[in-house]
Design goal:
207 residues; alpha/beta; binds zinc ion
Length: 207
């Protein structure tokens, strides 16, 4: 706990001063260019891996960087409302769905029923990626190779979430008019390399 309070003091007295001008320029409004949808994993630091400053990224994070499909319901929808705000109010130009290596959320797709019992809300949440789970599970060769299974699951999951974004009518309209760029990234923690999804070739290419 002390570490966090010491960190807050260090930020105010040192790091903040370094970026003082930037904070001053954005103190009354934000104009981020990009909506970054990433995993909640502690090893993912969106500004670090995109070399961006405060004010540039509007960030949504959840287990396994999932985008729920569009629906009109009278519920409390955290991810959906943040997407709506970013696109309709902030007019962001880009959306990045960023998955990563060694993703615990994606790995949870394959936990036993007993293990999932302990995390009922996570079990429910990852159902949003059921198509990915079913697809990988149907391929015994991939299922037998854990390294391959992990990698393919993470990448298929990113592609699936891009398709979910396209179920949002206002995103579909902007995408059809080429007014928004949608990217899928796979970030590899141990190498620092990031792979960008190429839709035409249906492969992830090193940036
Ligand atoms: Zn993750």
């Amino acid at each position: 706990m002390e570490k966090l309070f010491e960190g807050a003091k260090k930020f105010t007295n040192s790091d903040f001063l370094e970026y003082k001008e930037i904070f001053k320029s954005i103190q009354n409004s934000q104009k981020p260019h990009t909506l970054f949808i990433g995993c909640s994993d502690s090893r993912i630091v969106p500004n670090l891996i995109t070399n961006t400053m405060p004010g540039e990224l509007f960030v949504i994070r959840n287990i396994a960087n999932i985008v729920p499909v569009y629906r009109e319901v009278n519920e409390f929808l955290a991810t959906t409302s943040a997407i709506e705000y970013a696109v309709k109010i902030l007019n962001i130009e880009n959306i990045i769905v960023c998955g990563h290596s060694n993703c615990g959320g994606c790995n949870a797709f394959y936990l036993s029923d007993d293990e999932l019992e302990k995390i009922p809300h996570t079990r429910k949440w990852i159902q949003l990626s059921k198509k990915v789970i079913d697809k990988v599970k149907s391929d015994q060769e991939i299922m037998n190779d854990l390294v391959k299974r992990e990698w393919i699951t993470e990448q298929l999951n990113i592609v699936e979430q891009i398709s979910h974004l396209m179920t949002y009518p206002y995103i579909k309209t902007l995408a059809d008019e080429n007014k928004i760029n949608i990217y899928g990234w796979h970030y590899v923690i141990q190498t620092g390399k990031i792979y960008n999804y190429n839709r035409e070739k249906n492969i992830f290419e090193l940036i």
